[in-house]
Every structure is written in structure tokens, then in C-alpha cells.
Amino acid sequence: MCCKYKCQRAAALLVAQRKAGAATADGECKEKALPTFCHKVIKVHGQRDFDPARLVGSKRRNSVAAADIVEAYLIYGEFRAHERDSGFKDIRWVDLTDLVSNLTQRELKPLIDYEKKLEERMAAKKQKLLEAEEDE
After folding, report:
1. Burial class (CB in 10 A: 0-12, 13-18, 19+), 41
2. Which tens digit of pLDDT belongs to each residue from 34-45?
3. What gap in Å lies between CA 45 and CA 117, rounded to an integer?
């Protein structure tokens, strides 16, 4: 550790620059990249109630507070920065609030289908495991 904390101050400055925008090699910041939004859900691959990577310190060691719960789905879909953007396909975690605000009720149907299939799949998997345990 530096005795006068110059390294920590420099690192904190770099982190602040990265949060404000993309830092270049010489330390200057470019314009911040436009956020991309999910415009089409092709398939849903998972669901989570919170992002464990965002929990640090005591939040990881204790039960999750209601303020830290942010429901999200692992979406394979089409993402764009704006309506005129041709977009790209990707797999990303997308918050439920973003999905509801950007998509119509009909476009959210894959979420409902995923939840129904998940319940059926998990019930069948549990039953299979219980039967295998009884056979042993």
C-alpha cells in the first residue's frame, strides 16, 4: 500500500472517469456510450431476483434486503440504442422494469411461457431425482 495513498487516489480517479464515460489510454474520457434496450425477446434462458455481483460486504453475508431485489431475465433478443438503430442479437440480463416499459403485452408472452415451462420442467426433474434416490 502506498504510504501517502497516491495510488488509491489515482485509482479512484480512473474509476470515476470510467463511470462518467469510456476512458482512453491517455486518461481522457470520450462521450459515454448510448445504452441499449431490448426491443424483441427471442428466447428466455433464466430469471434472477438480484445480481449477486452488486452485493458487497455485509450485504453478501446477510439476507438480501428488499431494496436490493431487482428482478431480471436472461434474454436472448434484439437490442438497439434507438428505434432507427438496426440493432444486434445478444444474451443479456434485462431488468423486468425495462422489459415492461419497452415492450407490449404481446411481446412479453415469452416470459410467461418460460415461467410455465420452468415450473413443469423443475417438477419433472425433482420427481426424477426422487425416484432415482428411492431406487438406490
Report:
1. buried
2. 567 888 999 999
3. 11
Rounded to an integer, what distance in angstroms lies between the CA atom of residue 40 and that of residue 79?
7
What is the rounded CA–CA span in Å between residue 13 and residue 48? 32
CA distance 97 to 31: 26
Q: What whole-number distance in Å separates Cα of residue 120 and Cα of residue 118?
A: 5
Query: Could you give the CA distance from residue 78 to residue 37 in angstroms, rounded to a whole number?
Result: 8
| Phi-psi group of 5: left, alpha or beta (phi > 0 → left; psi -120 to 50 → alpha; rest → beta) | left
CA torsion angle 36 40 43 48 (round to 10): 50
pTM (global) more than 0.90? no
